[in-house]
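Thread: "does anyone have the structure for this chain?"

Original post by V.I.:
We have the sequence but no experimental structure in hand. Need at least a predicted one for the grant figures.
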Amino acid sequence: MSGRGKYKSMGVSYGEGQEEAAGRGRGRGRVNKYRKQLNGNFMKQGGGGGEDTKPQLLEQKQSDLLEAQLGWPLFTEGEDRLGWLMNFTTTSYEDKETARTLSAVDCYFQCQDGSMFKARVPHAPYFYLEVKDDAERDVEVWLRRKFESRIREVEVVEREDLDLKNHLSGLRRKLVKVSFYNVQHLMEVRKEVAPIVGRNKKRSTVADAVAALAAAQAGGSSSKLKDAQDCVAGMREYDVPYHVRFAIDTDIRAGHWYTVRVKDGVTSVTHRPDLLQRAEPIICAFDIETTKQPLRFPNAAYDQVFMISYMIDRKGFLIVNREVVGSDITDFEYTPKPEFDGPFTVINTPDEASLLKAWFSHMREVRQAWLHALRLGLICAVWQSMAVSPAKIGASSCAA
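Reply from O.Q.:
Generated one for you, tokens below.
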């Protein structure tokens, strides 16, 4: 069964003037109790993004701009591209047609010529519900009505159940697959459904025995109608991380070549098993040192970044904040083993802002293709996690 709108809302919508009036005057307290009810389930109709997701979308747009400046432009149109998948991470975006916030996965690719790009592949998060008494359709109707604005699709599927004693015989169980627009919606619905499942499990043994006895006394079957939510017997695969779910469903793995295609605004990724030679990315590993109080974590309000050390293809660099370090540091060599040469070039900077400018400037110079020692998103979060803000170093310092 598909489609929003098949089960119409039974709630009442109030305008701003009606809301104010509902809270004033004698004898209007009961109306005020329900004034926030928009579709019978205390949820806003349409949209689906909600105010709580707007900061995430703004942050994502800023991250896209910064990653483009660091060499990872978002691939949104043009001819098919061939890329070697280096990494992938979860993200979200706003659908232009519906204005909904949708979950997706950002895939980072390196091309054969050394250039790089990022592809955003949409994928709907989901979990399964185990339903008893062949009430899958009733549960579907209940889900669509209760979680109308958060559920993307509900369908009945068959899956192998490893909990069955004879699961090796190929028996399959019917499950209700519930798909969502984004991970946040999945978490919200899971939070509401989990207590129902727990309650049903506790009383299932006694209830089943009573139902069987009633059916026997009635001559074979019980005619008592059940509430749909009483038939939800369990949740399956609700705790699988989103990026892992994406990799399992699409069979996408880092370290392989893929053809990336954008058609009608939707990005798809196709594996190229005929290409076996690996790409040769430049590897960057880095470490950031900050001041801190004893037995405390660094605090962005007053602690400073005083050193950033990193190596790019066996060439070491150290950027120093002289506000904290007492004197200039000269170039040095650290070679723990003969096979690991460690010549280090030292850059002494007068303050924290100059240190960060030097760091981001060098990252842009060597952006041809460097593999995430940590994921690239960490660099985009450096301003927030370290003791500095973008305003301190100036937004123009990372301009393209």
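V.I.: this helps a lot. The CA atoms of residues 1 and 332 lie 68 Å apart.
O.Q.: and Residues 1-51, 221-225, 368-400 have pLDDT under 50 and may be disordered.
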